[in-house]
Design brief:
Immunoglobulin-like; alpha+beta; 23% helix; 3 domains; 60s Ribosomal Protein L30, Chain: A
């Protein structure tokens, strides 16, 4: 009985001993560490958060766990770190973490009590801004202004600044609106450039234009000058008298001042004269060599003759015509280079100058004296 008990006790002690040996030989698992950065991609100025997750920590009594972080802009607080990206240039960055366990102040004395990990993130370059611009109005007269409206946008809402330039004229503006002045700019199309830049030195530009249209040049018109009456001398109703000379001398001065202008002389005849001419025309039908007198044509030709021979005006600068008036007057016109006489003065008919010869301008007394002499002979 006694021997069986001793044998049983011996077996029990052996089992305990084997169990203790088994426990003492168990392999200790080393600590591990995993890292993760969120978000993995940011723009400069956006925050990145890194997390380190440790595994196989023994958590024995008096065990302490310490974390260390390293990397650009990294600030660690235990198993979590933050990364300030404000000053980081675009590119890829790596964050490293280390964990140690053990008694406080003695963490990581054993290789199995230390672990490291790394993770990364990317700082993206800011996208450039976009811009468009519009001129209103887009068509100007010299001296007018136009408002240049510029629409800029930054995909990441960066602050924008605006500048402007113009090929001619002046443009002023420091924000999204500028004013273009056409003063000093020639007629035609003027190119305008709108520039926008963000605080990261990214730029964009857009072009618009304005068209400066010069007002049409004033259309020159025929100018009515002085008129002449031939009613004072009933005996010589077509003669240019001294009063007529005063008017014609002034016309000559006007023509000399405007060498590219011309003159048109429009003469009329009264009803009595028209009747005389009509009778003479009937006679001329029967008598081929009978000379018909056209009072209005003769007046016009005589006036031209005075301007040419007495005032020295080139004959090619003077035209003669008849009008529709019922009087004994001559109306004189100054025709600028680009004016059209027929458009401004209607109802006239050109005189065939080759058929009407100018009359010699002689004093009346001389003609009477010659008639008396002829009678005496």
């Amino acid at each position: 009985m006694c021997s069986r008990s001793l044998k049983s006790i011996s077996l029990s002690l052996m089992a305990i001993s084997l169990a203790l040996v088994s426990v003492g030989c168990k392999k200790v698992q080393p600590i591990t560490l995993a890292c993760n950065a969120t978000p993995p991609t940011v723009y400069a100025g956006e925050q990145v958060t890194a997390t380190a997750t440790a595994a196989s920590i023994s958590f024995k009594k008096h065990t302490n766990v310490a974390y260390n972080w390293s990397g650009s802009g990294v600030t660690g607080n235990g198993s979590t770190a933050t990364i300030a990206t404000d000053t980081l240039n675009p590119g890829s960055y790596t964050i490293k973490a280390e964990v140690k366990e053990g008694k406080k102040g003695k963490e990581g004395l054993k290789p199995s009590e230390t672990a490291e990990c790394s993770t990364g993130f990317t700082v993206k370059d800011f996208e450039p801004p976009t811009v468009s611009c519009l001129a209103n109005p887009s068509t100007l007269k010299p001296g007018d202004t136009s408002t240049i409206a510029c629409t800029g946008a930054s995909p990441q809402n960066r602050p924008l600044t605006y500048t402007y330039s113009a090929a001619a004229g002046t443009i002023l503006g420091a924000d999204s609106t500028a004013t273009f002045s056409s003063n000093g700019a020639p007629a035609g199309t003027v190119a305008i450039t709108c520039n926008v830049a963000d605080d990261k030195n990214h730029t964009a530009k857009a072009d618009t234009s304005v068209t400066i249209v010069a007002p049409p040049l004033p259309v020159p018109h025929v100018q009515a000058l002085c008129s002449i009456s031939f009613a004072r001398d009933s005996k010589r109703p077509t003669r240019v008298d001294n009063e007529a000379k005063a008017c014609l001398d002034q016309i000559a001065i006007d023509l000399k001042k405007s060498p590219d202008a011309k003159a048109v002389i429009v003469a009329d005849s009264n009803e009595k004269e028209k009747q005389i001419t009509a009778k003479q025309e009937k006679i001329a039908v029967r008598h081929r060599h009978f000379k018909v007198k056209y009072f209005d044509q003769q007046r016009a030709v005589n006036v031209k003759d005075y301007l040419v021979n007495d005032q020295g005006i080139d004959a090619s600068r003077i035209s003669v015509a008849t009008g529709t008036g019922n009087d004994e007057n001559v109306q004189n016109y100054l025709v600028p280079a680009d004016a059209t006489f027929e458009k401004d003065v209607q109802g006239t008919a050109a005189v065939e100058e080759s058929a009407v010869k100018p009359e010699e301008r002689k004093p009346l007394a001389v003609r009477r004296h010659r008639k008396a002499t002829a009678n005496q002979q």
